[in-house]
């Protein structure tokens, strides 16, 4: 019986830095009105520990007239600034040119404009006004209201990666990226179906038609839905499982995992 661990790529990174190095005082808070511009020296918005950064990630080769960037969250302390989330436009294309700007606004949250001032992406706040942004040490970028309720967060809008502490509900899912350097939508899809079943399938591009799943968790019960799954959990400890409505677990990681205190864990499609 094939298990899901063969389909996820678990990449583990040793922390190659001295934890006692002094860092600038920072609490991860981003005020409304703050901006970042792609390709400038403006430093990204860091989590309190500095492990995660929110900012522009350089895509592809250095070429000053044709540079492309993606608005991303990435590991900030390792030499390979591995991206774990990115903002993508309607065509699933996250690449924006040098000079593009992101601004934290009260009404729309994060707004990404190209150098001509045309909006290419926003975090789309349904109700309420954003009072503050926060780059959390878990890797989650959170927009909160004045009463601290969560209006938007990157964990609820996954791109191609899940991190420890992240959770996925039924009818949520995401796609792989095309390649390491091209973040356009790839052919692989990860979904937790309405019935609680986790499936992996290939989609036909560009029609978006989903082919039959090549992995089916089987974590559902037609006769008794309390036995069916309803959330994919990736725990801080590094374990991943489907939580059933009755509280039971369907394990996705079957091996003992290495301590999350010593390694970065990520699950990437
Ligand atoms: C975080 O730092 C900013 C500026 O340094 C400050 O205005 C804000 O009150 C701090 N927030 C918390 C929760 O400590
Ligand atoms: C940048 O790349 C474009 C095509 O990708 C090329 O036409 C142009 O000459 C390059 N510019 C520099 C300065 O290398
Ligand atoms: C922020 O990070 C802390 C641990 O660093 C975690 O306990 C908390 O749940 C996180 N909050 C959000 C909204 O992700
Ligand atoms: C990335 O892939 C898409 C879809 O195949 C293509 O349209 C686009 O030109 C590619 N972008 C780059 C920078 O290669
Ligand atoms: C459904 O399964 C639960 C155990 O998960 C059990 O307690 C319950 O009695 C079952 N309900 C029916 C209608 O069989």
UniProtKB/TrEMBL annotation:
Q: Give start-end of the signal peptide.
A: 1-24
Specify one Pfam family. B_lectin
Q: Which InterPro entries match?
A: Bulb-type_lectin_dom, Bulb-type_lectin_dom_sf, G-type_lectin_kinases/EP1-like
In this protein, which residues make up the domain named Bulb-type lectin? 21-156
Q: Which UniProt keywords apply?
A: Disulfide bond, Glycoprotein, Signal
Q: Which domain of life is it from?
A: Eukaryota
Q: By what name is this protein known? A: Bulb-type lectin domain-containing protein
């Amino acid at each position: 019986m094939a298990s899901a661990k063969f389909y996820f790529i678990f990449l583990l990174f040793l922390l190659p830095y001295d934890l006692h190095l002094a860092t600038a005082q920072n609490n991860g808070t981003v005020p409304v009105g703050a901006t970042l511009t792609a390709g400038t020296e403006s430093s990204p918005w860091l989590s309190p520990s500095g492990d995660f950064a929110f900012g522009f990630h350089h895509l592809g080769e250095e070429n000053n007239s044709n540079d492309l960037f993606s608005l991303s969250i990435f590991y900030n302390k390792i030499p390979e600034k591995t991206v774990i989330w990115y903002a993508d436009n309607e065509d699933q294309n996250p690449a924006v040119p040098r000079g593009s700007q992101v601004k934290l606004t009260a009404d729309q949250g994060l707004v990404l404009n190209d150098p001509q001032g045309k909006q290419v992406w926003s975090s789309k706040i349904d109700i309420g006004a954003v009072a503050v942004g926060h780059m959390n040490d878990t890797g989650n970028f959170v927009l909160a209201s004045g009463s601290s309720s969560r209006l938007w967060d990157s964990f609820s809008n996954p791109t191609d990666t899940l991190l420890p502490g992240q959770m996925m509900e039924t009818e949520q899912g995401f796609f792989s990226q095309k390649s390491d350097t091209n973040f356009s939508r790839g052919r692989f899809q990860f979904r937790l179906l309405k019935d609680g079943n986790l499936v992996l399938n290939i989609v036909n591009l560009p029609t978006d038609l989903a082919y039959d799943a090549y992995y089916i968790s089987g974590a559902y019960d037609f006769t008794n839905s309390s036995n069916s799954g309803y959330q994919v959990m990736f725990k801080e400890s590094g374990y991943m499982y489907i939580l059933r409505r009755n509280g039971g677990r369907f394990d996705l990681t079957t091996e003992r995992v290495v301590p999350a205190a010593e390694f970065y864990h990520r699950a990437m499609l």
